[in-house]
Structure formats: structure tokens, C-alpha cells
## 1
Amino acid sequence: GAVVSQHPSRVICKSGTSVKIECRSLDFQATTMFWYRQFPKQSLMLMATSNEGSKATYEQGVEKDKFLINHASLTLSTLTVTSAHPEDSSFYICSASPAYRASQYFGPGTRLLVL
Amino acid sequence: AQKVTQAQTEISVVEKEDVTLDCVYETRDTTYYLFWYKQPPSGELVFLIRRNSFDEQNEISGRYSWNFQKSTSSFNFTITASQVVDSAVYFCALSGANAGGTSYGKLTFGQGTILTVHP
């Protein structure tokens, strides 16, 4: 149990386009999901907290107008990178947890390459 | 603010050697959770262990063991008789929790330690 999926696993796009990444909890409901970003050879940094039915909470330095988060249901959160640029190329990972568990369950990640 | 420090950027050992990965943390929360994750080249995070701040018992799982020392704010990870398949990046992470023990969910990660085990 407690499986989190992400789609797509890998995406290549041209600079200026928008890319949507989905994070799904497959066998549990999650009122909160988290989005992390990992640049090559670096650690994971929390970008934002996705809250079902309300606005996301962004970490300092993360542009909310660039990284749009929608958590429309208890099993799905989406991260849209708007007008992507090469510097947005990174590994994006989401996590979620059933309400009764202390551990976060991570998706397999999405590699974004912006040309 | 929370902080996790993994001072060892890279470690290289020969197969069958024991290796310890260090992790030191800072938090103002009285209740918190500590984690270790393994990240192989595929990128997917593999959960290894979770420890809550009230449980200072050391834990052993096969070749893996963890030493939680609250007095020194450390949560070190030892791999005994390392194998080539242990080669990966290892992350230590921390999440705060409320007084009731409910985790806030979001994790603060250390910088990671790249472990290379040579045959």
C-alpha cells in the first residue's frame, strides 16, 4: 500500500512552453502533497505544499506564478511549469502520505529537460 | 528553522568494508522524525528507516544499522560488509511534528553522501 505515481517520468520541451506533471496517490487519499526539486548532484529542496481544495503554500524563493500547483482531488496534485526555461531543467519529485502515517511516500520523479 | 548536515560528500570503499554515513540535525521541534533514503541512479527515493525523536533505540536491519544520539543530534547510518549494489546517494532527512506526534509531512534533506563501493 501507499503508492505514489508521477507522470510523465521524463519530458523534453522547448523553451517557453508549459509542462504539466501529475502526482497521484494510488491507494490512499492525501489532503496534502509536497513537491520537491532536485538539480543534478544536489539535494532535494521543497518547493511547495499542495493542499486539497485550497491554495498551495510556496517556499521562499519559489515563484508561485511560474510553478502552478493544483490539488483538485484527494488523489491528484499537478505541478505546471509555465514558460519553462533551461534553468528549470531538473528532477521533480512529489510525496504524499495517508493521514495516519508519519512517513512520506515519494513518487518516482519526473526529469524535465528544457531546450 | 530545520537543518540537516551530511558532512561527507563522497565516500569510496572496497566491497566487504564497513562504512558509516554521518548525519547531524538541528530543529526547534521537541517532536520530530528522522529518515534515511537511498537514491540509486534511477533517481527514485528508496525509504530505509524512520525514527521518532522519542525512540533512541538503535536499530539493525540486516547489514544496515542506525545510531540515534539525541544528545549530539546525530543519526548515523552504518552499512556492514558493503556490497557494490550499495553504491548510491544516501540522504538523511528530518520532519517536524506537533506535540501529538503528527508529522508536518514536509522534509528537510541533508546534502547527501555519494557512496561508491568498488569490487
## 2
Amino acid sequence: AQKITQTQPGMFVQEKEAVTLDCTYDTSDPSYGLFWYKQPSSGEMIFLIYQGSYDQQNATEGRYSLNFQKARKSANLVISASQLGDSAMYFCAMREGPGTGKLIFGQGTTLQVKP
Amino acid sequence: DTGVSQNPRHKITKRGQNVTFRCDPISEHNRLYWYRQTLGQGPEFLTYFQNEAQLEKSRLLSDRFSAERPKGSFSTLEIQRTEQGDSAMYLCASSSGGGFQETQYFGPGTRLLVL
């Protein structure tokens, strides 16, 4: 079964507007961490934001915020005031349980920002 | 603080040949991870080290693959008798400490093409 599901293969957004990238996850472990990474065409994965399963507040990092709905098992990334440089592939990832370091990634969403 | 570096950035080889990739983590990061990413997919975990110890290996890591981190600093990933299915981007990441908030920082990757 898919642990991380990103249902939007591709998204378009107008420059300066906000966009939401969807991510749902599946785990029976009460302790887990959720991450978003950006991958430009150059290939390097860039860490954007982190949300812990016990965090009471939604995470924010500059123009990035995470809409964490624990009961629905969703962790959507919101990018405000989109810029042309935001055009990239975006991946949601999860680390579950205390005993592993590995991340499980979704299939990604390609975001294109239009001028 | 220099980031994670990987060499070579690109590798083209013929089927049946052996290849070796190198990853230099962020200095003082004690954990080092290897992932494989095929076109249009999210990265898949291969293995990770804490210092010199290889703590976890994916079933994706067949016996043709071997990874080392001999002095707890750089790591090498070797693929023996390469197959066309090995063509992918090989990503290395490093982190410090553990816990759910541990953030992995990725290198630029090595693109492998097996002809």
C-alpha cells in the first residue's frame, strides 16, 4: 500500500498567487515526521519544511506553510506569493517510528509558475 | 559549511561493467543515506549508515550493490555487473543526530546510464 500519496501529477499557478500541493499519508504509528522537499531540474533535493505528528501548530517557513490535518492524515504544502523560481518538482516524505532513519517519498507534484 | 557533494555527477557505462559512486557528507554529520530515483518517481531508500555502521538496507539493495563508509566520513556505493534497470539518479543525503525532526540534506546526485 502507498504510504505517501500525492494525487496531483502537475499543477499550474500564476505568479504571486498561492498554491496548495496535496499529500496524504498512511501509518499506524503514532509517532512520525512529515517533510516536504523541492527538486529543481538540476536534481538536488532541497528541504523546505517539517511537521511532527505531535506538533500542535502547523509548521511555517517563510513563504511555505504546512496544512496538517492529523485526523485526515493529510499534510498539504501551501506556497504563498508564488515566484518563477518555485517551478520544480515537490515531494512529500514521511519518517515513521523511532527505529528508522529512512524517508518514504511520494511520487511528487510538478509545479509550474506562469508569469 | 559546504553541502553534500557527490562524484561523479554523470556516469555512462556499458552493461556488465562495475561502477562506484562517492558521497561526501556535510562535515560532522554522523548519518549518511543512499537513495535511488528513477524518472518520474520519488526517491527510494537504499541504505543508511550511522558513523561506520550500516544500520539498515532495503530489499532493493541486491547483492550486486554494496555500500561502505569506512571511516565514518565519506561513503561509496558500488554496483557490480550493471544492468540497464540500474539506470537512475543515485542520491546521497546526510544528517546529524536522530529523532523525528532529523532533517536529511541531499547532494546533487549521480545520474547513471547503463547502455
